[in-house]
From TrEMBL:
Its job: Required for dimerization of active 70S ribosomes into 100S ribosomes in stationary phase; 100S ribosomes are translationally inactive and sometimes present during exponential growth.
GO cellular component assignments: cytosolic small ribosomal subunit
Domain Sigma 54 modulation/S30EA ribosomal protein C-terminal, residue spans: 130-183
Classification via NCBIfam families: yfiA
Family matches, as Gene3D superfamilies: Ribosome hibernation promotion factor-like, Sigma 54 modulation/S30EA ribosomal protein, C-terminal domain
GO molecular function: ribosomal small subunit binding
A family per Pfam: Ribosom_S30AE_C
Official protein name in the record: Ribosome hibernation promoting factor
Keywords of this entry: Cytoplasm, Translation regulation
Main location (coarse class): cytoplasm
Amino acid sequence: MRYQITGKHIDVGEALQTHVRNELGEVLEKYGQRPTDATVIFSKAAHEFHCEAVVHLSSGLNAAAKAHATEIYAAFDDCVEKMDKQLRRYKRRLKDHHKDRTEPVEHIGASSYILAGEPESEEAEPDTLQPIIVAEMETKIPSLSVGEAVMQMQLAGAPVLVFRNEKKDGVNVVYRREDGNIGWIDP
């Protein structure tokens, strides 16, 4: 498994990198998943350290967790604990969903754009109704069942997930509603 351990405006020492590899490796080994790579990013805001971890599984799914604490090791340990809880919760479903799957999740390429927000002053009217594109990126849309999409959205901690429905071969969206339920858009 490949590890990418970085810090934003902070130095990540060899001892912390070894701790990350050992602890994260133990959690992933416990659940029998086949991770391909893990990205762990440390940052500091005021007096708190923040840790974000994303693990890509060979099945094509991602598990993500975030945590913060006043100590950098405590922030990482809280993050790993959250990931452990997610993987424990979804262990049976991860195995059941991929029992019939012989190949990893297929991804199709798509363009992703970041658009400029509204002007700060309400009096200023835009010159045109066309939004200003700030950035353009490549993204991947997975081919999943609806159940797998909901599970992936919850594992990644994302508010929304766009996916290609395997059964209907169309693009669908699942999202977390304000009432806590999951919404599904199937055009």
